[in-house]
């Protein structure tokens, strides 16, 4: 029901549309259901591809079932607010481990990915990136001396 405040009404409609696009909610009035469903499927596919890109060994170890398994997970779980696709994949793999759904290769892929990252100041950092940066700074300093 409209509140009379155009900004509030727009905000309500936007929240309803976002919920339909990413959380499986009903298509809000005034929107084409078919187009919203197509956009929602596209966003789901994009989320799956991004996680597969960040977790290639996990995706490879799960083979063709990765997309359907992650899709089933993603329909029930919103993407994390922070951490991007890496955190999304970590949440997925953590859930799969808790349910004992991962084979040894997938668990090993998870362990390698977790070991390669750490949290610094609330942000996810690739440990290898820090090592590369330190080596580059040292090399630059050595060239100057």
Sum up the structure in keywords.
145 residues, mainly alpha, two-stranded antiparallel ribbon, 71% helix
Describe the 3D structure:
The protein is built from seven helices and two strands; from the N terminus they run ααααααββα. The protein has helices spanning 6-22, 33-54, 56-62, 65-76, 84-98, 104-115, 127-144; strands at residues 117-120, 123-126. It has a two-stranded antiparallel ribbon with strand order 1-2. Helix 2 crosses helix 3 (56-62). It is extended, with a radius of gyration of 20 Å. The mean pLDDT is 84.
How would you briefly describe this protein structure?
With 145 residues, the chain is mostly helical. It has one domain (32-144).
Summing up helix and strand content along with how strands pair, one would put the structural category as mainly alpha
Q: Helix count?
A: 7
What share of residues is helical? over 70%
Specify Rg, calculated over alpha carbons: 20 Å
**What's the domain count?**
1
Strand count: 2
What characterizes the major β-sheet? 2 strands, antiparallel
Order of helices and strands: HHHHHHEEH
Outline the low-pLDDT stretches.
none
The average pLDDT value, as a whole number, equals 84
Taking strands numbered 1, 2, ... along the chain, how are they ordered across the largest sheet?
1-2
Distance between the termini: 71 Å
Which range does the strand content fall in? Answer: 5-15%
- Overall shape: it is extended
């Amino acid at each position: 029901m409209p509140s009379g405040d155009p900004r509030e009404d727009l905000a309500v409609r936007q929240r309803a549309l976002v919920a339909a696009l990413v959380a499986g909610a009903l298509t809000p009035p005034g929107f084409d259901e078919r187009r919203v469903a197509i956009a929602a499927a596209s966003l789901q596919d994009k989320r799956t591809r991004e996680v597969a890109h960040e977790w290639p060994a996990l995706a490879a170890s799960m083979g063709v079932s990765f997309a359907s398994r992650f899709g089933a997970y993603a329909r029930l779980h919103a993407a994390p607010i922070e951490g991007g696709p890496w955190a999304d994949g970590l949440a997925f793999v953590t859930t799969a481990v808790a349910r004992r759904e991962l084979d040894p290769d997938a668990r090993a892929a998870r362990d390698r990915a977790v070991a390669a990252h750490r949290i610094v100041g609330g942000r996810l950092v690739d440990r290898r990136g820090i090592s590369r940066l330190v080596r580059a700074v040292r090399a630059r300093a050595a060239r100057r001396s």
